[in-house]
TrEMBL record:
Its EC number is 5.6.2.4. This is DNA 3'-5' helicase. Residues 10-293 form the UvrD-like helicase ATP-binding domain. Residues 667-697 are annotated as: Disordered. InterPro entries: DExx_box_DNA_helicase_dom_sf, DNA_helicase_UvrD-like_C, DNA_helicase_UvrD/REP, P-loop_NTPase, UvrD-like_ATP-bd. It catalyses: Couples ATP hydrolysis with the unwinding of duplex DNA by translocating in the 3'-5' direction; ATP + H2O = ADP + phosphate + H(+). GO terms for molecular function: 3'-5' DNA helicase activity; ATP binding; ATP hydrolysis activity; DNA binding.
């Protein structure tokens, strides 16, 4: 055995080794998180190539993301050693969608379709559905998105429009879907387009109708390996079955406890039924976890064991010692983010843990905003996975562009961005003409005011001119409002008059995200009302643009990862922060009523906890702003599942009050601590003399809104939403209930 070859097997435990060396026939590795399933696949590929002399071209490996495929490839090359790795070529690796796209590019001709098809994303899909809906039921109020999901579900079940029409439920909705489905498919075809579901569905169709084509791929890919098998849906299941039914050299790995894509049709049953479909399956269980310490595993176990639909398994680890998972109860989402970012910074500075080894996980995309802002304020580099940064998101940029025009009548860039959003008949031609007018008049403001002069008449086509005039008048009215009212009123008026919410509400999943983001933006803006009319808007815009600059300047390769729980599958970090552990947020409110969905939320939580190698922080907030309003937060049931002797706890009072009273306050982070009350004073013992109560919300002339956390005679300790903790003398401070 060469060195590299022995490494392929020696770095594995016995059951892992068995999974790697059982190369012929079906193998099912059913095992918990961090037990080395992905490692088994990687080593198995290297073993097949090196020990069994299998050509890399005969191997097909399916991973959950293309990035995972890339990482796996890199490790295989390393295991094979430079020389062999470089000469032997690489296996086919990627997601189901990318592999199917490759197959179809080659062979879709057999289905009488063009090879140069385009792939439609959900926005394109929706526009087709909307048009079809208009034809079929012009007056119906059915949401195009609901129709699209129904069609997508049908496609994932490999159902044709004809089959759907035969079996449909007989109710009005299915009737409409039944009519839209064939029109939608025809439009796709007319556009030479496939949607995501077609990539899989047409490949199955191709294989079923053209045995010669199927045979070609069966012969080519003699060895199949599938990661994250628990999240395959029906059509993916069929693909695997078709490709493997001749040779059965199929190795799938998965963990039923980590099935978290049920809402997209993933079927946990596929993994549970594997043995039935593949007689003589060798089932291998892996029980040793190499990723996490015992306390982390215990936490994961306590959460997942509440589920009833699961195969019983428990992991063990050699790493018996470890830090207890820590639960932090935050005051609100700002405090939560400041705690997490402060902790990350401390672990980095004092314990030399790389930021790349830390991740903040949350349930919904909108939660990232608070963490992004805290990172920017603290100057901590971060990496937002799977999303555009908050202030770079289209809807946020659009709405800020409206506000910018109010603030600065010469801002042509912002005007161009939103002058036709939502569409109001101002096209590129009109904008070119406007630009000429701007040159003539010397500025945007002057140009807009000259629309109805002879010059305007000469330069701009009359229809475009009228529409521009209406837009200009609308902006003028906002400017007027901004002179009288606070920035939140102005923002609300912009939302209302532009109909922006209706504009983004196109029924897609993105629309839901956008809506959440707009709510987040409104929450941010509400903090600027205290600056009063006009001033509030300018402070807001300035701070936002500074944030963007700092963000750009400080983006470095070492960074804290911000990521949703759904995207974090398969990854691991030294330190994991699981944020927003509150009822209604996580578990998500949509899941609170359905037992089945609650079990999925629980699995999502299990996935999150098991990403941690050494340290786990779970945070929840006492109150959270939703759409500019503060709502009380109840600790997630998943936290309740963790026994007291397993975890340690702290809360915002520890962070602010106790710390500041011992004067060991630090001034870092979003909540700087310093005392306003210096000079001599007499402290009364009772709280009775105060007109405030502990826990009451108050408003300060310059610090804005906050909560009274401690009363000692005349001295009040208040945590302000924006500036953090301050000590004030009640008799002197401009403080009122609010
Ligand atoms: P998940 O369910 O989260 O996808 P997994 O079962 O795929 O996890 P891996 O990611 O393959 O687990 O492995 C978890 C960690 O344990 C990795 O860092 C891996 O390198 C390490 N590991 C796995 N097996 C061994 C082993 N036999 N010896 C040393 N380290 C191992
Ligand atoms: Mg894995």
């Amino acid at each position: 055995m060469s060195d590299t070859q022995s490494e392929i097997l020696e770095a594995l435990n016995l059951p892992q080794r068995e999974a790697v060396t059982t190369t012929e026939g079906p193998v099912l590795v059913l095992a918990g998180a961090g037990s080395g399933k992905t490692r088994v696949l990687t080593h198995r590929i290297a073993y097949l190539i090196q020990k069994c002399g299998v050509s890399p071209q005969s191997i097909l490996a399916v991973t959950f993301t293309n990035k995972a495929a890339g990482e796996m490839k890199a490790r295989i090359l390393k295991l094979l050693g430079e020389a062999e790795g470089a000469t032997s070529g690489t296996p086919t690796m990627g997601t189901f969608h990318s592999i199917c796209a490759q197959i179809l590019r080659r062979d879709i001709g057999s289905l009488d379709r063009a090879h140069n098809f385009v792939i439609f994303d959900s926005i394109d899909q929706l526009s087709l559905i909307k048009k079809a809906l208009k034809e079929v039921a012009p007056n119906s109020t059915i949401s195009p998105r609901a129709v699209l999901s129904a069609i997508s579900r049908a496609k994932n079940e490999c159902m044709t429009p004809e089959a759907f029409a035969v079996q449909k439920g007989g109710d009005y909705f299915s009737d409409i879907v039944g009519q839209v489905f064939p029109i939608y498919q025809k439009r796709l075809k007319d556009n030479e387009a496939l949607d995501f579901d077609d990539l899989l569905g047409l490949t199955v169709e191709l294989f079923q109708e053209h045995p010669a084509v199927l045979e070609k791929y069966q012969r080519m890919w003699q060895y199949l390996l599938i990661d994250e098998y628990q999240d395959t849906n029906h059509v993916q299941y069929l693909l695997v079955k078709l490709l493997s039914e001749e040779h059965h050299n199929l190795c799938v790995v998965g963990d039923d406890d980590q099935s978290i894509y049920g809402f997209r049709g993933a079927n946990i049953g596929n993994i549970l039924a594997f043995e039935k479909d593949n007689p003589d399956t060798k089932v291998i269980k892996l029980e040793q976890n190499y990723r996490s310490t015992q306390p982390v595993l215990d936490a994961a176990f306590h959460v997942i064991q509440e589920n009833t639909r699961r195969t019983e398994k428990r992991l063990w680890t050699d790493r018996k010692e470890g830090q207890a998972p820590h639960i932090y109860e935050a005051l609100n989402e700002t405090d939560e983010a400041s705690y997490v970012v402060g902790k990350a910074q401390e672990l980095h500075d004092n314990h030399k843990i790389s930021l790349n080894e830390m991740a903040v996980l949350y349930r919904t995309n909108a939660q990232s905003r608070a963490f992004e802002e805290a990172c920017m304020q603290a100057g901590l580099p971060y990496r937002l996975v799977g999303g555009v940064k908050f202030y770079e998101r289209k809807e946020i940029k659009d709405l800020l562009a409206f506000l910018r025009i109010i603030q600065n009548p010469e801002d042509e860039v912002s005007l161009e961005r939103v002058v036709n959003i939502p569409p109001r008949g101002i096209g590129a031609g009109t904008l070119t003409e406007l630009h000429r007018l701007v040159k003539e008049t010397g500025g945007l403001k002057a140009a807009l005011e000259a629309l109805h002069t002879d010059l305007g008449d000469q330069i701009i086509n009359s229809r475009g001119r009228e529409n521009l005039y209406i837009f200009h008048a609308m902006v003028e009215s906002w400017r007027e409002l901004n002179r009288r009212e606070n920035v939140l009123e102005v923002f609300d008026q912009v939302m209302k008059e532009t109909g922006y919410l209706e504009y983004i509400n196109d029924g897609t999943t993105q629309a839901e995200d956008r809506y959440e983001n707009i709510k987040e933006l409104r929450t941010t803006i509400s903090a600027y009302t205290e600056f009063g009319p006009q001033h509030g808007l300018s402070v807001l815009l300035e701070e936002v643009s500074l944030m963007t600059d700092i963000d750009r300047a400080q983006f470095a390769s070492e960074a804290l990862t911000l990521i949703t729980l759904h995207q974090v599958k398969g990854l691991e970090f030294e330190v994991v922060f699981l944020a927003g552990m509150e009822e209604g947020l996580f578990p998500h409110s949509r899941a609170l009523l359905e037992e089945k969905e609650l079990e999925e939320e629980r699995r999502i939580c299990y996935v999150g906890i098991t990403r941690a190698k050494a340290q786990l922080f779970l945070t929840h907030a006492e109150s959270r702003s939703v759409y500019g309003e503060s709502r009380p937060g109840i600790a997630s049931r998943f936290l309740v599942d963790l026994p007291d002797d397993l975890v340690t706890r702290s809360d915002w009072e520890d962070k602010y009050v106790r710390k500041s009273s011992s004067l060991a306050a630090s001034s870092r982070g979003a909540a700087p601590v310093h005392s306003e009350s210096t000079g001599s004073r007499q402290l009364k013992d009772s709280k009775a003399g105060s007109k405030f109560k502990e826990g009451q919300r108050v408003k300060h002339g310059s610090f804005g809104s906050g909560v009274v956390v401690q009363i000692k005679g005349d001295e009040l300790t208040v945590v302000f939403d924006k500036v953090g903790l301050k000590r004030l003398l009640e008799s002197l401070a401009p403080l009122a209930a609010g």
